């Protein structure tokens, strides 16, 4: 049987006051005295009253519903970002509707096309790595629904964005390898077209240029973010006559793939080939040897993204902000030659 929740009328009847007085007390308006408000709140708690956001939305043009679109939910990074989003959303009385694209551009477009915009106050998005156009998000914004991008952003859409410092993280990762004596450094990058892929590639390239080390096009491979793509990229690099002595991977999952491929070839990780990733996935501290990486502020990215979205919802002419949060170099065994 469906549970019955108390209404404003139930509170009014229990206290023998008017429905309008209860409503004003719950909204904390200036014309209700403190004693009455306290009495109403206590009775609301006693009767287990819950506000009806659908009814409130009809009056305030607000539904208290947010949609979140993620490429994946099973990996550490996105699940942590989502935790940060939840913290902020729930603390402000918002519900979350989660959609997962599985990194499929067609799936992403289908989700957007089937969103019930009338039941949404805003949208948080990390775009699919296969997406080559984001006009569907601009259409959402044009319809009056605020959109905030995080991590994987739509670069050419004028709205708020929250990202980690991909360029400086990649620069620091590459420079760390150089400082440990590696001279021929390859980069297994993310899919072309993503802002983070470009930023991490540029950080890698600029570190090599700073130290006047060779840049080889054949040492730069673009693919997905998974462990499997890391293994495949490593196999491709090892077919070259001019093999690298270190690898900077766009993600920890790819770096783990590299390490597994090296182990199969009985190549000593660290001593013979250095490896560094990007994320600080928990697996990086468990795998042997442990994986050096750039730690991303995933929880804070989720929090900041949701905070910005709520500001957009509250103030429709809110000026878009771009927030870039710093990462942190974590040095472990995979990048040490000793």
Report what the structure shows:
By secondary structure, the chain is α/β, with parallel strands linked by helices. The chain is 42% helix and 14% strand. The protein is built from twelve helices and twelve strands. The strands form three sheets. The protein has a six-stranded parallel β-sheet with strand order 2-1-3-4-5-11, sandwiched between helices. A four-stranded parallel β-sheet has the order 7-6-8-9, with helices on both faces. Strand 1 (65-70), helix 5 (76-91) and strand 2 form a beta-alpha-beta unit. Helix 8 packs parallel to helix 9 (195-210). The longest helix is centred in the last third of the chain and has 17 residues, at 298-314. The model is unreliable at 54-59 (pLDDT under 50).
Can I get a quick summary?
The protein is of the alpha/beta class.
Describe the secondary structure blueprint for this structure.
Layout: H1 8-15, H2 19-26, H3 34-46, H4 53-60, E1 65-70, H5 76-91, E2 95-100, H6 105-113, E3 122-125, H7 135-142, E4 147-150, E5 161-164, H8 166-179, E6 185-189, H9 195-210, E7 220-222, H10 227-237, E8 246-249, H11 252-264, E9 274-276, E10 293-295, H12 298-314, E11 322-325, E12 328-330
Parallel strand pairs: 1-2, 1-3, 3-4, 4-5, 5-11, 6-7, 6-8, 8-9
Antiparallel strand pairs: 10-12
Helix pairs in contact: 1-2, 1-3, 2-3, 5-12, 8-9, 10-11
Overall pLDDT confidence: 90
**Strand content of the residues, in percent?**
5-15%
- Put simply, the count of helices is 12
Shape: elongated
Show unreliable segments: 54-59
Alpha carbon gyration radius: 25 Å
Order of helices and strands: HHHHEHEHEHEEHEHEHEHEEHEE
Output the strand order for the largest sheet. Answer: 2-1-3-4-5-11
- What is the helix content? 40-55%
Could you give the distance between the termini?
Answer: 67 Å
How would you characterize the largest beta sheet? 6 strands, parallel
- Write down how many β-strands occur, each being a DSSP E stretch of 2 or more residues: 12
Structural class: alpha/beta
